[in-house]
């Protein structure tokens, strides 16, 4: 028995992909982060950011919290803030899927929608302006070290353990970059030869959860030295692979997972041998109102 649903964060399954690659000298494994209780990899960072801020005395139950999000971090923060009885406002572009908005509200969060044309950058600007009034505390996942440390302490060790120390390549989409920064840091400490591969969208491609940030908005936690290679994917590749994951592997995921998997498959076909691990960021049910699966 578990004392709290928080105890179910992490230790997600690592599952072999059986249909996606043709290179018999390479194995591709997918880490199913949608199995976290909040449905995404962001449960890890949200818990670390909230719990550590409370332990340091930076926030109390009287603190008004605010955070800009494209979706998954907001859902995770809403869930964990509710458990700790914290007041949180989440800010996101108005073109976010209704499933995401309603899930955050279901957990008890206030949701503020900003102009779609401003994107996540506009949501970040709105939240930062509210913080300047002095009445709000923002975790700022883009510059919060607890974001990447969550993955240094959990995701990296789990992958190292569950791959029986045989991992040769790690592939992750890049948004806040917390997942790839923390996992890279841990894996490189175990074996500096492990290759860390980041995934970004091609220019003009829109893939929720994966970003190529303008310089002014580049996450402060990002350290380019921790990424050996960056692969770019386009929107069509990401969509097709997301559907293929569902129909051929039985893995129901979001579009950023499709993008990361498309890059991982490309990598698997070009290397001579190895064991590749790619992150499946979330579940597909929060995209059903979009045209992703039509």
UniProtKB/TrEMBL annotation:
Alphabetized SUPFAM superfamilies for the sequence: Tryptophan synthase beta subunit-like PLP-dependent enzymes
EC identifiers of the protein: 2.5.1.47
Necessary cofactors: pyridoxal 5'-phosphate
Broad EC category: transferase
CDD domains the UniProt entry points to: CBS_like (cd01561)
Pfam entry (one): PALP
Keywords noted in UniProt: Amino-acid biosynthesis, Cysteine biosynthesis, Pyridoxal phosphate, Transferase
GO terms of molecular function: cysteine synthase activity
Source organism, top-level taxon: Bacteria
Reactions that this protein is recorded to catalyse: O-acetyl-L-serine + hydrogen sulfide = L-cysteine + acetate
UniProt pathway: Amino-acid biosynthesis; L-cysteine biosynthesis; L-cysteine from L-serine: step 2/2
Domain Tryptophan synthase beta chain-like PALP: 7-282
PROSITE patterns: CYS_SYNTHASE
Listed Gene3D superfamilies: 3.40.50.1100
NCBIfam families named among the record's database cross-references: cysKM, cysM, PRK11761.1
Family membership: Belongs to the cysteine synthase/cystathionine beta-synthase family.
Protein name: Cysteine synthase
Gene designation per UniProt: cysM
């Amino acid at each position: 028995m578990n004392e709290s649903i928080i105890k179910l964060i992490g230790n997600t399954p690592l599952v072999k992909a059986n249909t996606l690659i043709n290179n018999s000298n390479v194995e591709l494994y997918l880490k199913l982060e949608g199995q976290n209780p909040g449905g995404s990899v962001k449960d890890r960072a949200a818990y670390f950011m909230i719990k550590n801020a409370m332990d340091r005395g930076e926030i109390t139950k009287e603190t008004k919290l605010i955070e800009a999000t494209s979706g998954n971090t907001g859902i995770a923060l809403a869930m964990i803030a509710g458990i700790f009885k914290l007041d949180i406002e989440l800010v996101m572009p108005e073109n976010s899927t209704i499933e995401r908005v309603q899930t955050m509200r279901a957990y008890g969060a206030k949701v503020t929608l900003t102009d779609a044309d401003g994107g996540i950058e506009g949501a970040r600007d709105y939240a930062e302006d509210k913080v300047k009034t002095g009445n709000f505390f923002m975790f700022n996942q883009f510059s919060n070290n607890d974001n990447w440390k969550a993955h240094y302490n959990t995701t990296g060790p789990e992958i190292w353990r569950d791959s029986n120390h045989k991992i040769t390549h790690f592939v992750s989409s890049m948004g806040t970059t917390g997942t790839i920064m923390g996992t890279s840091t841990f894996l490189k400490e175990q074996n500096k030869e492990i290759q860390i591969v980041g995934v970004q969208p091609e220019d003009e491609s829109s893939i929720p959860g994966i970003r190529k940030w303008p310089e002014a908005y580049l996450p402060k936690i990002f350290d380019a030295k921790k990424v050996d290679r960056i692969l770019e994917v386009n929107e069509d590749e990401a969509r097709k692979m997301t559907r293929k994951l569902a129909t051929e592997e039985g893995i129901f995921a979001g579009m950023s997972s499709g993008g990361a998997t498309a890059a991982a498959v490309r990598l698997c076909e070009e290397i001579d041998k190895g064991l590749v691990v790619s992150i499946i960021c979330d579940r597909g049910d929060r995209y059903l109102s979009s045209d992703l699966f039509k």
